[in-house]
């Protein structure tokens, strides 16, 4: 039996979502701050959830590990994003391990219960990362920033959205295996309730049905050895004819 297509979709989208969330968590570009007063026009601050960086766009020089003078990293949205993104990565790895054991492409039939549970786990990890990036995006303009600067969404936040959506879709695809598991349970209950239906084998064919029927012989003609018209013939001969008169 081949692996169902919905499970293949889940196995492909799950690792892709995990990779995008990992890049989003580690890269320091959740928010970009540009046009800072008293700074060069091509200087851009890149703020993540772990560290702060600055880049000069004209020379492409980048420096990370800047001091957090405004208390950006201590704000609640950043702290929540740290916890949820790390938790999402751990749960995603757990879900992929369970998915590999449930789908088990090396065997003829997958384990639908494990595959469905792995889908629920991946769906939960996608929800956690989606909550993290959505909360940060909602509070992006309220986080500490230099006065008069321009705030923009960084590429790390976009990758977080994409990774969350891929994990949600992949988890939903794998969770459809629970439907097949429920159908198998119903079949087992029906077989246990009505055992004579399940134990009834194919109809047997008797040898008389297979052997051709013998044709009945044609009826024989009956011949009487005694001539029953002999007396009438002798009587007719004794009558006078016209020639005798």
General description of the model:
There is one protein chain. The chain has 245 residues and is α+β, with helices and mostly antiparallel strands. Helix content is 54%, strand content 9%. The chain contains eight helices and five strands. Strands 4-3-2-1-5 form a five-stranded antiparallel sheet. Helix 1 runs antiparallel to helix 4. It is rod-shaped. The model has no long low-confidence stretch (mean pLDDT 80).
Q: What is the CA-CA span between the terminal residues?
A: 112 Å
Instruction: Give the number of helices.
Output: 8
Mean residue pLDDT:
80
Question: What Rg do the Cα atoms give?
Answer: 45 Å
Bin the strand percentage.
5-15%
Helix proportion of residues, in percent?
40-55%
The major sheet is characterized as:
5 strands, antiparallel
Strand order of the largest sheet: 4-3-2-1-5
Number of strands: 5
Global shape: rod-shaped
Structural class: alpha+beta
**N-to-C order of helices and strands:** HEEEEHHEHHHHH
Poorly predicted runs of 5 or more residues: none
């Amino acid at each position: 039996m081949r692996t169902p297509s919905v499970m293949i979709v889940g196995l492909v989208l799950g690792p892709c979502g995990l990779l995008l969330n990992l890049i989003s968590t580690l890269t320091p570009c959740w928010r970009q701050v540009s046009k800072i007063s008293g700074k060069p026009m091509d200087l851009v601050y890149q703020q993540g959830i772990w560290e702060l960086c600055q880049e000069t766009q004209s020379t492409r020089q980048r420096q990370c590990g800047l001091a957090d003078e405004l208390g950006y990293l201590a704000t609640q949205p950043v702290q929540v994003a740290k916890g949820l993104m790390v938790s999402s990565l751990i749960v995603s790895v757990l879900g992929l391990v369970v998915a590999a054991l449930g789908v088990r492409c090396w065997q003829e039939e997958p384990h639908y219960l494990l595959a469905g549970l792995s889908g629920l786990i991946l769906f939960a990890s996608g929800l956690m990362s989606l909550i993290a990036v959505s909360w940060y995006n909602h509070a992006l303009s309220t986080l500490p920033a230099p006065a008069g600067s321009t705030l923009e969404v960084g590429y790390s936040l976009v990758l977080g959205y994409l990774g969350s959506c891929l994990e949600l879709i992949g988890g939903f695809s794998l969770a459809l295996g629970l439907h097949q598991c429920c159908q198998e349970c119903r079949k087992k209950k029906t077989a246990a309730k009505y055992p004579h239906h399940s134990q009834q084998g194919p109809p047997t064919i008797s040898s008389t049905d297979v052997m051709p029927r013998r044709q009945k012989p044609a009826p024989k003609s009956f011949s009487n050895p005694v001539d029953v018209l002999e007396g009438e013939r002798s009587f007719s001969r004794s009558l006078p004819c016209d020639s005798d008169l």
